[in-house]
Amino acid sequence: MQQPKKLLIITYYWPPAGGPGVQRWLKFVKYLPDFDIQPIVYVPENPTYPIVDEGLLNEVSDKAIILKNKIFEPYQLAGIFSKKQTQKISSGIIPAAKKQSVLEKLLLWVRGNLFIPDARKYWVKPSVTYLNKYIQENNIDTILTSGPPHSLHLIGLKLKEELGVKWFADFRDPWTTIGYHKALKLSSYADKKHKFLESKVLNSADTIIVTSKTTKSEFQALTQKPIEVITNGYDIENVAKQTLDEKFTMAHIGSFLSDRNPKVLWEVLQELVTENSTFSANFQLKLIGKISQEILESLSNYNLESYCNNLGYVSHTEAIAHQRKSQVLLLIEIDSKDTNSIIPGKLFEYMVSERPIVAIGPKDSDFAEIISSTNTGVFFTYSEKERLKKTILSYFELFLENKLLVHPIGLQYYSRKSLTEKLANLINH
């Protein structure tokens, strides 16, 4: 009987880490053994995770081999001075430039200019030493690195150079074109160094894996190496059937960043609660996850505070439950062409919740095409105020008639198992 192929996966986010970064490889690892691949997962022993969800530990496959090695993280030291601000920056919540404190400006400058490509750079050297020995002792010929943090790709780069292993570089998000990269107050030297490392990784890996067609197009301008698109997806979740909320709840689930502030939505909702007493009596805005101060201030400015139910961060299981009982789900992306390639991981969980999605983002967003093709909701640009208002009102009228439903199509393509099969075919090719 043929032995399963060994795949060494180098990732930073792993249970008990919470948030979207952990889900992709947690689920791939769950299904890889079904396709005769033995996952060996290398993770930090003492990481600094901005979000923790202990419940995800129960989802780790018992067929996976987990390797752990200590990491030194500057965020651990920075937290001594300001744990709250350090956690915010670590989790991607960056205040608008004009609202940044002196300490926040300093932390951002240090993050962008001294920690290149990121604050996990000090894990590269000890990881290469540890894994070099492990790979040779265990006859492993294929490795995969997942970023961000993109410093993990530098581990793959060194192992490729030293051992000649087959290397897949998985980009859950872009590197230098991602929205927050510009907020790091980069010097000319730092900017060039980021781009140099990005180019070296893209031209040294055997295959690049990305999550969107726009990222593939951007990377094709930087490398001739093969690039494959494997999106995120949804899994079969063990969540009890939910009773729909009695109110007309519009739920945003996940981090609500400063630059993701949809004032067009707040204007529409303010008009609807002012003009329509029935809407006002039934409407509730549910916020689940880390919320930036700018979002909260905007809600106050538009007199929507009294309609908000701010639940904060909840476990992944609880988040899934809220997705299935909320009347409408909100998906908001930053209004910038830099985010066209971003396909939020929660989109796929939204799509199988059987609740309509109201999505707002920049023109030509990759996720707009997915929502349209699966018939799971409606996408709007930030300039489509009247169309947005008309759609929300039509959903509300269907809610009053107890007829608010969606009829998805083609979702099976985005199941975690189907996506893992695609990955396995790539690994075994």
Distance between the termini: 20 Å
The total strand number stands at 13
- Number of H- or I-type helical stretches: 15
The best one-word shape is: globular
Provide the spatial order of strands within the biggest beta sheet. 3-2-1-4-5-6-7
Proportion of beta-strand residues: 15-25%
What integer is the average pLDDT?
A: 91
Quick overview of this protein structure:
With 429 residues, the protein is α/β, with parallel strands linked by helices.
Structure description:
- By secondary structure, this protein is α/β, with parallel strands linked by helices.
- 40% of the residues lie in helices and 16% in strands.
- The protein has 15 helices and 13 strands.
- A seven-stranded parallel beta sheet has the order 3-2-1-4-5-6-7. A six-stranded parallel beta sheet has the order 10-9-8-11-12-13, with helices on both faces.
- Helix 4 packs across helix 5 (151-163) and helix 8 (263-275) packs across helix 14.
- The longest helix is centred in the first third of the chain and has 17 residues, at 74-90.
- Mean pLDDT is 91; it is low at 78-82 and 85-93.
